[in-house]
Specification:
By secondary structure, the chain is α/β, with parallel strands linked by helices. Helix content is 29%, strand content 27%.
């Protein structure tokens, strides 16, 4: 258990969360999550939120706590999935989410081509958060490339895509239709915000 990891605000405020064991999963710090949600505050209420490389689920659960309509968690590591599902259960979150146990690239490619049922509209995400392993530069490039390319149809009209990364790791200013609009730094971490350019 990671001491001090908790929901910061909203209906689940101050509830504690577990983190997956080992160093492969590096949870977003409470402080960085607070910074992220201070920026996102005007757009979280009623939003559809996509939490990629979800790990413990802390970011997506923070979104639910603050009034997101629904959160889709995508995680493939078995240990992280166990902790993620345990956190949802412990916090009593029984609805408003789905957990996808698969690789992020596979999820995005599948979601981008899947045909919705005739009575449903295709899911479009208002906020997409991604936090791949910091040392995996290819994963950042591949995921942002998909979101700015063949999977761009998954983004709502004014969607924000946020990548958490090592401050020294320089992400591109542009990935297809995605353009970086701001970057926030905190300690050795950074958040890059991207929006689709029209």
């Amino acid at each position: 258990m990671l001491v001090g990891m908790r929901i910061i605000a909203g209906s689940l405020r101050s509830r504690t969360l577990e983190a997956p064991p080992g160093v492969a999963t590096r949870p977003t710090s409470d402080r960085l999550r607070e910074t992220l949600f201070n920026v996102l505050a005007p757009r979280i209420e009623g939003a559809v939120f996509l939490d990629l490389y979800a790990g413990s689920g802390a970011v997506g659960m923070e979104a639910l706590s603050r009034g997101a309509e629904r959160v889709e968690f995508v995680e493939q590591a078995p240990a992280a999935l166990k902790v993620l599902r345990g956190n949802l259960e412990r916090l009593g979150i029984g609805a408003g989410f789905r957990v996808h146990a698969c690789a992020v690239g596979a999820f995005l490619r599948r979601a981008a081509v899947s045909k919705p049922e005739s009575h449903e509209k295709r899911e479009r995400y208002d906020v997409v958060f991604l936090d791949p392993p910091w040392d995996d530069a290819e994963e950042y490039a591949a995921t942002l490339g998909l979101l700015g390319g063949s999977a761009a149809g998954l983004l709502a009209a004014d969607a924000l895509v946020i990548a958490e990364h090592r401050r020294k790791e320089h992400l591109k200013d542009r990935y297809g239709s995605l353009e970086r609009t701001r970057m926030l730094e905190q300690g050795d971490a950074a958040l890059s915000f991207y929006a689709a350019s029209h």
